[in-house]
Specification:
Structural class: alpha/beta
Distance between the termini: 76 Å
Shape: elongated
Strand order of the largest sheet: 1-2-3-4-5-6
Strand content: 5-15%
Order of helices and strands: HHEEEHHEEEHHH
Number of domains: 1
Largest sheet: 6 strands, mixed
């Protein structure tokens, strides 16, 4: 976890705002199709966003977001060396991928303008630039698969930290309790039990 007054933390906060505040311009999309050849995902707005959330046994992300359908990760890099070292993390390897412990269906790197070039990006990752005031969308990401295990652990960590109630949620408005005696009264079964025992004893030797 970075220091509160560091550039890294400041960019994490800006990345969180970028994920959370963006809105889909439906009228623009309906009237004029996107001119870009690739789906930039810029229309997505992530309702739940966490900054530098440390979660047990899963990827420790700088920024993680969820929009009800898609999860996103933004990794902040303030230097080129930091970016190169990122590829050495266990979370970036094939083993973590096979285990489903990589987070984020969409993934971006955010850095000061020019620190990372587009041709250096790992496959599928997007790129964001910080110019000192605003975030610029440079490269669009593509969807990653097999992130469910990690994303659910992060979401559960958020629910626990926010004291989300641990209970049964029943949205039908009423609870129904089925009692055994409403199905078969136990007293009515006693004669049946005795009859069965009598029949078995009478034909026991026939069975043998």
């Amino acid at each position: 976890m970075s220091a509160t007054n560091s550039l890294h933390y400041q960019l994490c906060c800006e990345a969180a705002k970028w994920l959370h505040r963006r809105k889909h311009d439906y009228k623009k999309c309906q009237n004029k199709p996107c001119h870009k050849g690739e789906f930039c995902r810029h229309c997505l707005r992530f309702k739940y966003v966490a900054v530098e959330l440390n979660t047990y046994c899963t990827e420790q992300t700088d920024v993680w977001g969820y929009d009800g359908n898609t999860t996103a990760v933004i990794e902040v890099k303030t230097s080129h060396t930091d970016f190169l070292n990122d590829s050495k993390k266990w979370w970036r390897g094939e083993e973590s991928k096979e285990c489903g412990l990589q987070a984020g269906m969409l993934r971006w790197y955010l850095c000061p303008s020019g620190v990372i070039s587009a041709d250096e990006l790992p496959s599928g990752w997007g790129l964001l630039y910080w110019d000192g005031k605003n975030i610029e969308h440079v490269v669009a990401p593509t969807l990653f698969e097999n992130t469910l295990k990690s994303d659910i652990r992060i979401l559960y960590s958020l629910l626990r930290r926010e004291n989300f109630p641990q209970k049964i949620f029943n949205y039908r408005g009423t609870n129904t309790t089925i009692k055994p005696k409403t199905i078969i009264d136990y007293d009515d079964m006693k004669p049946l039990d005795s009859d069965i025992s009598k029949i078995v004893s009478e034909h026991l030797f026939d069975i043998v």
